[in-house]
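U., I forgot to send this yesterday:
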Amino acid sequence: MKKWFFSICFLTGTILFARQDPVSATRSSLSLNGTWEFTPKGQAKTTMPVPGFWANEWDDYGTGETGDYKLFPGVTDGEYVRTFDIPATMQGQRIWLAFESVNYIADIYVNSRFVSTHKGGYVPFKLDISDFVSVPSTGNSLRVVL
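Result:
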């Protein structure tokens, strides 16, 4: 059985943002773009820029059908990890993670707690993580497993 092709072009413009309930005239936001820790399945930990596409170079034929990539040959799974702080200015607001793109399945963890699974190719989605973080807080962890 051919393994699902898990590639990532995710967190393009990923933003951690907060919203007051029910409606807020102001919204705080914190970009999580930048350098993330990335571990391709079965390989050593490295870093990757986000937004980015870890399988950014297709096989020699340019089709991607084999799942082989020049950067990480034969790797179709991996995980991204990033830490972030939530400032006191977000007190009393809902805390959301917004993903612009993930392909195809991603399990999202915040502070080692499972939040949700996303299924869908390159479809934006957002998750309310208010119950998984404290405001203010430092050293929160975000892990995206593909």
